[in-house]
User: What shape does this take?
Amino acid sequence: MQPSLIVKDLDKRFVGVHAVDHVSFSCYPGTVHVLQGENGAGKSTILKMLSGMYRPDSGEIILKGEPVKFRRPGDARRKGIAMVYQEMSVLPELTVAQNIWLHEEKRLGRGLIRERALMKATTDLAERYGIAIDPYERTGNLAIASQQMVEILKALAVDPEILILDEPTSALTVSEVEKLHAIVKTIVSENKTVLFISHRMEEVFAFGDTITVMKDGRLVDTVCLRDTTEDQIIQMMVGRELKSVFPPKQQEAKNDCVLKVENFGDARHFHKVSFELQKGEILGIGALDGQGQLQLMRALAGIQKHETGAIWLNGTKLNYQNCRRALRTGIGYVPEDRKVQALCLGMSVGENLSMASLRRRQTAGFIHRKEEKQQAQRMVDRMNIRTPSLLQAVGNLSGGNQQKVSIGKSLEDAPKVLLLNEPTRGIDVEAKQEIYKLMRELVARGVAVLCYTSDMMETIGLCDRVLTMYEGRITNELRGAAITEENIMRGAMNIASAKTEG
Amino acid sequence: MNNKKLPGILSDRHNRQLLVRRKNDVLLVYAFLIVMIAAALFLSPNFVKPRNLRNLLCSNVGLLLATFSQLIIISLGGVDLSIGSTISVVNVTAVLLLKENPASWLLAFVVCLAIGAGIGFFNGLLVVRGHMQPIIATLATQTVFAGVALLILSMPGGTIPSVLSKFVTKGWNYTVPILIAVLFTALSWILMNRSSFGRSVLATGGNEQSAECTGINVERVKVLAFVAAGVLAAVAGLYITCFTTSGNPLVGEQYTQRSITTAVVAGASLAGGKCSVIGCIAAVLIMGIINNILNLMGISAYYQYVAQGVILIGALALSAVRSEK
Amino acid sequence: MEKISFKSLRMQKILPVALVYAVMVLLALVANFLNPGFLSGDNIYSIFKQIAFLGIACIGQTLIILTGGIDLSLRYVILLSNVLAAQMINGNESATWPTFAFIMGVCVAVGLVNGAGVYFLKIPAMIMTLATGTALYGVTLLYCKGAPGGHASVTLSSIANKQILGSMNGVAVVWIVLAALTILVLRKTTLGRSIYAIGTNKTSAVYSGIHVPFILISVYVIAAVMAGVTGFFFLGYTESGYLSTAASYNMDSIAAVVVGGTSIMGGSGGYVGTIAGVGIIMVLSSLMSILNMNEAGKQIVQGLLIIVMLVLVYGRKSKR
Assistant: This one.
């Protein structure tokens, strides 16, 4: 049988990272092909190249035997590759039918749009795939799961050869997942190919026929799911080498609780999270993308609201729902996107460093400029921030140095707890090492550190203790020698471990 | 998941229910209009007099057309601050070109529409190639074109053939202006709701990235939207010229703020993606009735400025509160 | 990385501003060349008399543009203050300063409304101020019934007209004091720092613990107060209230701020540049009168100037 889609030697680099390294695999009509891998394995980059959002640096995409090149996202749709994105991209103000046939109205007749034709086409399309949806409803009024159905129908409206589903089940209940399964079955029965990404192992086996496992941007293997087991897949995903050198971890666990979190939850993303953050330890979260860890960090920082639960700092119960209060009580936060959330790129290094602690260095509103400069210089020296002067605009610094400024800003406010969200994202190896050393210094001095990094190797090398998280809940706690890639992956995918660990 | 199994085409009653739910913003505006009419009837017996009603309708056709123009840009997610200047330029040009000879009328109309398209194209270019937000680009072009209007006619003056102005604003026993309003309402409605261009405008305004991923050429849509808005603004300018029967380089100024107010009151969201052509009629009438009542009751006409400012803020506040839910 | 000296980075910040000042001087020289006597003491004095008003009004516009907004109510606040002052004082000496206090109160209220709409209702600054401006215009007309009357007090007239300290009048002195305060606040206080942070990146400012609502609303209050001061002292210059007071100030102030080097996107620039920008706008205006260009020409040139500045700013941004 001819493959419907061949990915041949696809390669893509970004600044500092080889996202996709000469990957090849083939998909066949009438099958569900799963793409699997840890965070940063390259799956989402491949999808973006297949859907036309990115252009490959080299390699070919061969669709139905013909090589194709996409210049803009719409091209892929026209040629027969339709993608259902993870983030909702339906237009809330339009009706279901209008959304589904957006930009494709010509298929239903030339000239002006006929709403009845749209509606009938929607009903027909929905029936064909066994989806129950009301074509006249305003899309914004629908539940998330229904909106997702609209997204799927929108992809199916172009009658694609390849349908890509990126984490389609994250927002669905169990019964809804079953319905989706039936829909996918119908789609493949039409000899289409479905490319499927999911972090839920049960679904991978329930939905999929073939699986391609990626690691560090490279292809590990493509196997038939009938002939594999969960364990074998995990073994394929793990086994990465530690690229960095990490400073030594703490020798023995202290028992001095700085931050106690109990039953912390928001309505949607994380639930019943309870843990204790001890003095002198770096606590890490091990999870795949989108498991609620982002929202948890943000809620702890006060940026997002939380619905349930309480926080104690050194025994005192805290009560905050905004980040100003959180900062005042001593909880610092280093956000994951420094350019957009932490730094003012047009302002100087000195100004950025002091931004969170201005109130400590002023009298009646007037900034103690000399003191500010001294403090900033001390921070620059301590963190080895490479900048020609304090006046340099932060936007001109390299990624690693920008990140140091971001962390330095939080440090100048002398926090008791530091929350770090992706502390080494997008920076070079040398800067990473410096940041690891800094984090060790911090905990040695009594600051409690909670850190989430999507780089699992970093979690393993850096953290004294790891909480694994799956779909908003803490699934496991790993300590010492138990912090291995396999154990973290099991916890992150909620697969029972063969061996139990304390 | 929505669990209505569809055995073929839905019943019309169901569709109607959904339609009502979808369009509840528009219904709200019309409800408000009814309240306004009731208030007007209560406050002044002269309101219902045919002469008053005729005047009310005909004097607001220009604003209605301007509102349709503004609606396109607001649906795109921006605001057009240059609409007033477009109207002014069209006004002074029309006064210049419209002579007694009917043959000159066609030329005048074509030139004015071309001017509207040209100004729109210039705006679109600034937005797409200059990477500016529409509100900033049009803030800048508004000054330039206001100056152009002054250049063409430095002092109020000039006149247009009374045959034309009478026909447009009062012709066939006041049916012509109503027909013009109906015609352009229909055209605007078809453009925004039944053409793929209008759909693309709403998509771009609603979620530009998503529109791009669907295959819509967002840049082309933006430029075309500005051109369309420019042409509609020119039509508004032509009508307003026929109504005022004279040239005034500053005539368009007030229409910028008024058209924004009516478009927002009609239910459009400044964030884009949402539009209601039908709602515009109610919004224009509401604002018109307010002025009318002030007039009839002998209250100072200056209150209309206060009313406009307060209503704009109120409508935006309402929209902000509702979107928070 | 090679060591770039402090001086060179400082130069980077000073250079654009120095450039604007250079352009201003250049234009003045051109004007003097075309119309000898332009730079004479008398003429400079008469220019100075007017420039101070735009200068004070631009303090508010600079602050608002720095936070990422634009103030379109400026002109109307000036007008309202002017008309209120004229009728409330009406030649009565003792009414001068109480009227001032009242006008200040009104302006604070306007600023609070503007700031609340921009922050809490998330209405874009331009639209919010456009709405309040229109409403204030109506209030002004209602107050004076379409025909402003009243008369300045002798105190006010002398502030605007008596020559003191060489080439300046009282208003110029007020301007210099306010200008110094503005520059001081922007450079050396937490308020100033916060304004720049909010304009550069509001999210980062929030996450850094900056009290955004307080700062934002303060900025709008200051802007309204500055407009009120302008309108009040304008009375000394015009002797009576006029509906055409400060008619072109909205666009003039935006042009002055933008030409002076403050980015329309917010976060960079400052009042020092605006001062030169104000100078350029005024000299340009005189220059165009010398060249016999009428009002229309002035508007077109100013509009094109703004477009050019915007294209430069936005063009640079998109190249990143």
